[in-house]
Design a protein that fits this description.
InterPro entries: Hexapep, Hexapep_transf_CS, LpxD, Trimer_LpxA-like_sf, UDP_GlcNAc_AcTrfase_non-rep. By secondary structure, the chain is an alpha/beta fold. It has five helices and 39 strands. The chain folds into two domains: 7-91, Udp-n-acetylmuramoylalanyl-d-glutamate--2,6- Diaminopimelate Ligase, Chain: A, domain 1; 102-189 and 197-304, 3 Solenoid (UDP N-Acetylglucosamine Acyltransferase, domain 1), CATH 2.160.10. The protein is flat. The termini are far apart.
Length: 353
Amino acid sequence: MNGNISFTLARLAEQLGARLVGDPDLLISGLATLQEAEQEQLAFLANSQYRKFLADSRAGAVLLTETDAEGFSGNALIVVDPYLSYARLSHQFDPKPRAPIGIHPSAVVAEDAVVDPGASIGPGAVIASGAIIAAGVSVGAQCFVGARSQIGEGGWLAPRVTLYHDVIIGERVVVQSGAIIGSEGFGFANEAGQWQKIAQIGGVRIGNDVEIGANTTIDRGALADTLIGNGVKLDNQIQIAHNVQIGDHSAMAACVGISGSTRIGKHCMIAGGVGMVGHIEVCDNVFVTGMTMVTRSITEPGAYSSGTAMQPAAEWRKSAARIRQLDALAKRVQQLEKQLEVVTQGPQDSSKS
């Protein structure tokens, strides 16, 4: 918690457009859960299963809906969506250090690179030939920005981010440590049992307000660019292969793997560990649950799943054994259906033939 920052409850209510119940002059200096909050902190109730902690919470104030506020005697900010309100206020109390404007003496910047005077280039960072860094961009320590790559206004690169050449990033994009954007895609042609490398001559284009998690990799296109739309959110350790296209405001949890040339629509949600084969299309407004293997295109919005959920090991082994028997069982059912058909139809009358 950053103890140097505090706001009155009235100020926070004004920022959120919330209805204030209680002491408007109460100073709030941080955020916390209902269970852990102290008198100077603001908590929130976003899930009904935590309502049992509300009465005994020591929080100075709580973000609540009108319904949850009924009967609550403490200070409260009444909002439509407490979790969204918490998300908005979280930036007010973020202790993340702000990098000083300017180029650190240990950074290496090519003579023909363009760095806006309002940008920050951290220690040991390398800005290659022809790169363009816009106003308000923060390039963390030991980052590499490749030739002709561009970062739009307000971008933030954590330490040790790598941008290969010809990576175009929009405005207000956040890239966490270890992320690699523009790496060469997995492209090879087979010649008499030996693999011949295919040059990856496309680039990567990323829209505005995108977030890219730690150690996530986005490969450059083989011919055309790999495309990431506006507002896309990518968690940690995601693999985006060459020529993938992801529509605006789609989100992916950790360890998702997207194979080459797959197209994902707008407003999709891809849960953790999902895999997608290449050259398929996923329409807008699709939700894919965790560990699903997507093997064909999805043309209708909705939720999709595959695989089996967890169960006790002994039960799972029985289920696995039955799965191995399904093919033989299906053949037996087909044989029984044929026998049943003969019995129900009876012998054919040859005099009618």
